Amino acid sequence: MQSELPAYCFHQVFEPRPASKISFDRDYLLYAIKGAIRLGVSDREWTLPPSYAAWIPAQTEIEVAVTHPMTCCSLLFQPGFVDGLPNQTVVFTMTPMARDMIYFNRRWGPDNDAFDTFAETYFRSIAMVCVELASSPSDVWQPKGSTKSVRQALAFTQEHLADNISFSDVAAAASTSERTLLRRFAEEVGLTWQQSLRRLRMIRSVELLSNEEDAIIQVAFRVGYASLSAFAKAFRDFTGHTPSKFRARHRAGWGSKEETLPATPD
Length: 266
Fold this sequence. Notes:
alpha+beta
C-alpha cells in the first residue's frame, strides 16, 4: 500500500491464505494482535503470535502465510526514520507496553491526513522501544534448510508432527541415506533431526495456542504428545511459560476483543 506519510499503521483482518513472497520499500514492524502469522526470511522461519513481533528492513524479501484468521497491526517507516534500527530481520518478544503503543497507532493509517508533531513523536517513541526489544532477539525460529533433501525432510516432518515417525522414515521421504541426511542437518540447520522435530512441534504449538478454538489437550495431541504433562513440560522449557499461561498472556492483550480508538489529545 502506497502512502506519502513518513510512518503509518496497517491494521487489517486476514483469512487463511497460502504462503506468498513479498517485499516492502519501507522498514516494517510485523505484528499480529490476534492469531498468528508465519514469516520466512532466508534460511529461517518463525510463527508470530501476539507474544512476538518481527522487525524487517526495507527491500527484504519475506514469505508470509496465514493458517488461521489473524488480525494484523503492523507499522511501516520510511528508511532512516529512526537511527539504530537493525539492518537485518529480527524477531523479538513483545511487552504489554509495546503492544498497547502499537494498538494505539491504529489511528494513523496510510490515508490519514492528521500526521502531526504528536504522531511523529509517537511513532519515533515506539520505534525506539523496538530498538531496545530487538537488542534481545527471540530464539523461536524454525529451520528451513538449503538443499532439496533437507527441505523435503523438514516438510515431511512438519506434515507428520502428530505421528510416531522415525529418522529412517524421514530419510526415505527425502530420497537420501540416513548418514547423508544426518550430515546435512548438522551443516545446514545446526541441529539434529530430533532437535528439529522438537522445535517444529513447539512452534506449531505456539501457532495453535494462539487460536482460541483449540483446547490445550487437542494441541498436545496434534503435535505428537500423548501426555498433557509431557507436552506442558516441553512447552515450558521452550517458551518459559506453561501452555495455559502462554494463552492467558494473549487473552490479556488486545487479541481478545476490539476496542474503540481513544480521542486524539488536544
